[in-house]
Amino acid sequence: MASPAPPPSDRRRKSPPMGKRRANIRDVARESGVSLTTVSLVINGNDQRISEPTRQRVRAAIEKLHYTPSRLARGLPNRRANTLAVLVPALQHAFADAYFGEIISGIYESAADRGYRILLEVARRDYIRRKEYLTIVEENAVDAILFVGATAEHEWLEDFAESDRPLILVNNRLEKLDLHHVVCDYSGAGQLAASYLIELGHHRIGHVSGPRDVVLTSAELTAAFVETLKEHGVATSSSMIVDGQLQAETGKLAADELLERDPKLTAIFAANDKMALGVYQSLRERGLKPGVDVSVLGCDDIATAPLADPPLTTIRMNFFDVGAVAARQMIDIVEKKLEFASGQRISEVVDVSLVPRESCRPVEG
Amino acid sequence: MASPAPPPSDRRRKSPPMGKRRANIRDVARESGVSLTTVSLVINGNDQRISEPTRQRVRAAIEKLHYTPSRLARGLPNRRANTLAVLVPALQHAFADAYFGEIISGIYESAADRGYRILLEVARRDYIRRKEYLTIVEENAVDAILFVGATAEHEWLEDFAESDRPLILVNNRLEKLDLHHVVCDYSGAGQLAASYLIELGHHRIGHVSGPRDVVLTSAELTAAFVETLKEHGVATSSSMIVDGQLQAETGKLAADELLERDPKLTAIFAANDKMALGVYQSLRERGLKPGVDVSVLGCDDIATAPLADPPLTTIRMNFFDVGAVAARQMIDIVEKKLEFASGQRISEVVDVSLVPRESCRPVEG
DNA sequence: ACTACAGAGTAAAACGCTTTACAATTCTAG
DNA sequence: CTAGAATTGTAAAGCGTTTTACTCTGTAGT
Questions:
Q1: Cα gap A354→A299, rounded to integer Å
Q2: Strands, E, within chain A: which ranges?
Q3: Nearest CA to the C1' of C16 belongs to which residue?
Q4: Residues 6 or more apart from B108 whose CB is under 8 A from it?
Q5: What 8-state DSSP symbol labels residue B23?
Q6: DSSP characters for A266-318?
Q7: Strand partners of residue A122
Q8: Helix, strand, or coil (residue B236)
Q9: What is the largest distance, in Å, between two alpha-carbon atoms of chain A?
């Protein structure tokens, strides 16, 4: 029985595309007289079997039709989105912070170079509770997560610890959880700070540290600083160290404390520039001139450091690079360019350097 | 002729999913004993015809299987990505700027509420040249573009002017191009500034404006300020106005100029807080106390305004809200909740308010 | 002459969903 | 009773790719 040809499908959900519809891969195939497959192979370039003439023709057609592949459709078959998630903690307006901003800029740079997009995510309470961070990778909205402001308090990170779920910590490490990470050389920074200050002749030195209990890199910085002082025979005691919370106000408070404990301090090393600026405040309130009466050394080299009065001597942390490296590494993993024994972790360290300006002087006589 | 049943397709490109594959809509359908369609309709909720009992069953199955729809697949049929692009100009580390940060936070907030994601894009030269801004919407990577730092110099925006391509200007408007936009009430701010200063008895007033030639809102602010002064019978001359570039240094320079032209100025209104802080510098260098000898009024209310010395009186611009409103509007458009006559444009204005602190005092005598 | 094989290309399945047009069943009204 | 309407559901087309497993030439080796 000759089955009748099926009636032309009239079930299009749209009226026939009157206006010029966007060209798709099929159009290109038709235009260049080859198969769908061939076009796809040409686009993705990695397959050697298509001959040069054919390639040419396909490319011509692509050009002519202004064809661009659909990202959406592209991701479907191999479940890849060509997108990276940048996850930040739910701080008050995290995006408005220069620290995050610089890292994100670095991430963006690398990602753009490799044809990846950046999706912004904020780890709000709700977000964590519903484990959205898992969802986004499971539903293939993103290929990997770059988490920027990790601390020991982010316990949900354990969901990534014993798995090969693609997450990397940007400029943070965790003591308890073994995760991919890229960090600035905080130990190196601590050493640098100590040797510089000693070189200038200081030996009564105070230190405003970061929140060492939850931020491992802060702990490292301080440990290396203290260790190096010791190595150079500078007496250290824990009373010379006061923890701050990385904000200017806490830097000021910490300096107040420090100067009360030892009014003859000749130098203060702050774990970041914002706190160093807080230290400036504290000194001024006491009628002391930063950089003259007391040397102040910062860390990070934020944009406003050179604009301070006096310009802040500091240790340059290349946050931009940290972001860039982290993104590159994750992309390598996603694209399987980096094969890992399951459980093996990325652990890159980015160099730091000292930027001498005017807030540190040799100790007098 | 009985055609033999087609052999079970053996062409799976993966070995049979041994490990637990992620559940898809088909699994849910099977589990709850209904059709694919039904599940889809339940998920999307908008269709009334599915009965409550069926809904229950489907939801139970979804729960049980930990099912989450794939964003990728979801976007394909109706060509929607549930994603908004935030486009920023290629300034040096734009993301590190508090202004952008606050707007982005607002955008994020609205978008998250409506189930939309945020894609970050930087309008680098290359990006513009290759018209990527068109590509991303054409290839359905995003549903709409929110452009944050527009100026008259961004000529490529004309690609959106006479079309219904979904782009909105966030906190900017353009004179030449008719585009969707949401802005703070810069005219209102200008009025507010003028009346406040007059109320305090000032009539020798200087003004550091923004780059009026390329930023329309800066022009509006200044125009309204001048106009209101005039209305109150305060003589104005163009020599009282100096353009700055919105950065602290240019604010200082402008103030230098202003104070040279009229050393008896009793108040200065700066078009943004950063420049106001620059004005502080200029005053201090002359041995004048900001807020005492010369009142200083800012605009924006950035995070550091209350921390300045003296705390800066300013006009609060709710950038967060501007971002939030812009995102909401675009989502409405994308989802066709807002039907527009082609060519009709969104034009929302967000209120501003005066925040009195200590940098403005009544004029003496 | 006959297998082997490389080279160039293709058919078709699969990815996971949305939505339209239709089907089956039950209800309502005449 | 029965025609029609309402209710609840379903089949299947379609979205735009990637990729696997083939096919078809022609050439080389034996």
A1: 9
A2: 83-89, 117-123, 144-147, 167-170, 180-184, 205-209, 241-243, 267-270, 295-300, 313-317, 347-350, 352-355
A3: B73
A4: A95, A120, A122, B118, B323
A5: P
A6: -EEEESSHHHHHHHHHHHHHTTPPBTTTBEEEEEE--TTGGGSSSPPEEEEE-
A7: A88
A8: coil
A9: 111
Query: CA-CA distance, B178 to B158, in Å (whole number)?
Result: 9
d(CA B341, CA B350): 24
For chain B, give the longest Cα–Cα distance: 111
| CB-strand contact A9/D, under 7 Å | yes
Half-sphere exposure of B314 (CA within 13 A, CB side): 25
Query: What's the pLDDT tens digit per position in A90-142?
Result: 876 667 677 888 899 899 989 988 778 899 999 988 888 878 898 888 777 88
Please determine, for residue B20, whether its predicted confidence score (pLDDT) is greater than 70. no
Segment B140-173, tens digit of pLDDT: 789 999 999 999 999 999 999 988 889 999 999 9
By the 8 A CB rule, do B34 and B58 touch? yes
Do you know the residue count of chain B?
365
pLDDT at A16: 38
Q: Which residue of A has its CA nearest to B307?
A: A249
Mark the nucleotides of strand C covered by protein, meaning any atom under 7 Å from a CB: 7-21
Of the candidates A70, A61, A4, A12, the one whose C-alpha atom is nearest the C-alpha of residue A35 is A61
CA–C1' span, A35 to D26, in Å?
21
Sign for the CA dihedral angle at A30, A31, A32, A36 comes to negative
Q: Where are the alpha helices (DSSP H) in chain B?
A: 25-32, 36-44, 52-65, 71-78, 98-113, 125-129, 132-138, 158-161, 186-199, 216-231, 248-261, 273-285, 319-334
CB neighbour class for A282 (10 Å; exposed up to 12, middle 13-18, buried from 19)? buried
Q: Any idea what DSSP says for residue B337?
A: S
| Cα–Cα dist A283/A359, whole Å | 12
Report the pLDDT value the prediction gives residue B10, as an integer from 0 to 100: 36
For residue A97, what pLDDT is reported? 75
β-strand partners of A269: A207, A297
Provide the residue type at A49 as one letter.
Answer: R
Q: Do A139 and B79 make contact, defined as CB atoms within 8 angstroms?
A: no
User: Mutation test of the interface with chain A: which of B67, B84, B95, choosing the one with the most A Cβ atoms within 10 A?
Assistant: B95
Residue pair B206/B238 in contact (Cβ under 8 Å)? The answer is no
Interface check for B67 against chain A (CB to CB < 8 A): the answer is no
Q: Does A322 touch chain B (CB under 8 A)?
A: no
- Give dist(CA B12, CA B16) in Å, integer: 8
Q: How confident is the model at residue B18 (pLDDT cuts 50, 70, 90)?
A: very low
**Residues in contact with A347: Cβ distance below 8 Å, sequence separation at least 6, in sequence order:** A180, A181, A182
* Helix (H), strand (E) at residue B314: strand B313-317
Q: How many secondary structure helices (H) and strands (E) does chain B include? A: 13, 12
B11 touches strand D (CB under 7 A): yes
A79 neighbors A123 (Cβ within 8 angstroms): no
Strands A295-300 and A241-243: unpaired
Bridge partner list, B168: B146, B180
Peptide bond into A311 cis (omega under 30): no
C-alpha Rg value of chain A to the nearest Å: 28
Token pair belonging to A315:
């240790």
Residue A140: φ, ψ to 5°: 60, 30
d(CA A80, CA A83): 8
Distance of CA A317 to the CA centre of its chain: 12
Listed residue (B167, B154, B279) closest to B215, CA to CA: B154
